[in-house]
Each structure stands twice: as C-alpha cells, then as structure tokens.
Amino acid sequence: MTFKELVVAYFQYPAIIAYLVLSAAMFGVYAWQPAPLVPSLISAVVAVAFYPLAWYVLHRWVLHGQWMYKFKAFAPVWKRIHYDHHQDPNHLEVLFGALYTTLPTIVIFLAPIGYAIGGIGGMAMALAMGLLTTCFYEFCHCIQHLKYKPRAKWLALMKARHMAHHFHDESGNFGITNFFWDKAFGTFYERPDRQEKSETVFNLGYTPEVAKHYPWVAKLSGGVATGHPSQRAQG
Ligand SMILES: [Zn+2]
Ligand SMILES: [Zn+2]
Ligand SMILES: [Zn+2]
Question: Which helix (H) or strand (E) holds 164?
C-alpha cells in the first residue's frame, strides 16, 4: 500500500468524515460565540495535551481492564471496540473506534474543561481540537495496521511499538501516538525488554475458560477463537 492509497482509504471511512464535519461545526460555534484569545489558546492546548492521558487511562483500565466482558450490557461494546481489534488487528472495519463510544467520551472529557476555561467559545474550541486529535490518532492507527511501511523514523518506531502491543505483549505500550504515559506508569517496553510472548495477546484474557463464566462475547463471536489471527479463517 502506498501513502496515497492509505490516505484515500482513511478519508472514505464514515467516522473520519463525521469527526471532520463535527469539528467544522464546532469551529462554527466558536465563530458565533468566540472566547478571548488567551482562553481559546488554553482550551486548544489543554484538549491536545490531555488527550494522550485520557487515551492511556481508557485503553489500559477500560479496554484492557478485564471487566467490560463481565457485564451483559458492556460485552457487545467491548467486543466491537477492542476485543475484535485484538482478535484480528489488521481488519479495517474494526480498526476505527465506534462513534457511539468516541463522541460521548470526547464530550464528557473536554466539554466541561473547555467551558470552565472559556465558556461556550472555549468549549467549542476544546471539542473541535479533541475531534481533530481523534482524526490524528486514527490516522496513525491506520499507518500502524495497514500494509504500509513508514519512511520517517518516528513513525516506524511508533508502528513497531503498537505492533508489539498487538503481537507480543498487550500489557504495555498503550499509547498510540505518544508513549509518554507508558513511560510515566512503567508500561513502556521495546521488544527485547520482554522475552516472553503474552499468551493472551489476541484474546485479551477472554479465554475459553473465562467464556464459561461470562459467555456474552463468545455468543456474539460464534465461539472463542484461539491461535494467531493469520491462521484463522477470516470472517
Ligand atoms: Zn491497534
Ligand atoms: Zn489494546
Ligand atoms: Zn472456571
């Protein structure tokens, strides 16, 4: 896949179009009810700076938290937004986050902060920047998973670290674009740091044994798949 093909695939994805349209709408709200320059800048910077921490917390303690599949109500969501992605990491349809989870998350985290900093205008700015940052995250995630070899060294490193999260040990490298919080919380690793491959890297701990107690994800998935994704029939 060339870079151009990757960009084309990316912009065709409905969620990306939705983020871009909504972020344009938020800039519209900002133009209608602008905040002064300094609060606007602070809102924008806070939204972008806060994002990697929010993602880290969600990825580590929600998506890998071993509790979502235990509740019937959360099991389908968990399956859609993370279990399926680890089961088959290069499958495009589940590569992107689901709007019904990403949009409320962005609003819950950023609307109050933006409003506190700069009223309606500050809130609109924070949401617009949060949506654009989401687009950036999804773009990097595309680079990491699609058959594209980045030439830039920082992108190649970013890809290698996320690949380690998917194919070596899922209990580290939770960042997508930014591994600052992994380093701060001690979950950052390079492949040679961890000799043993994790046995739960594809099933996230949702083993056939666990499925006996919490069957909802298995029911929705037609059983519990084991083994390497490339050796399983692609659904
Ligand atoms: Zn991934
Ligand atoms: Zn993960
Ligand atoms: Zn048991």
Answer: helix 153-167
Q: Which ligand is nearest to the CA of 176?
A: 1
Least Cα distance to 82 among 103, 104, 66 occurs for 66
Predicted-complex ipTM score: 0.78
Which of 184, 192, 201, 205 is CA-nearest to residue 160?
Answer: 192
User: What 8-state DSSP symbol labels residue 223?
Assistant: S
How remote is the CA of residue 206 from the centroid of ligand 3, in Å?
Answer: 12
Ligand nearest to the CA of 140: 1
Give the Å distance between the CA of 118 and the centre of ligand 1.
Answer: 34
**How many other C-beta atoms lie within 10 A of the C-beta of residue 42?**
18
Please name which ligand lies nearest the alpha carbon of 208. 3
Domain ranges of the chain: 3-231
The C-alpha atoms of residue 13 and residue 225 are separated, in whole angstroms, by: 27
Distance CA 47, CA 128 (A): 9
List of residues 6+ apart from 24 with CB closer than 8 A:
none
What is the CA(165)–ligand 1 centre distance, in A? 8
User: Within 13 Å of residue 106, how many CA atoms lie on the same side as its CB?
Assistant: 26
pLDDT tens for residues 193-233?
Answer: 998 999 999 999 999 999 999 999 999 998 887 777 766 65
Residue 190: how many other CB atoms lie within 10 Å: 12
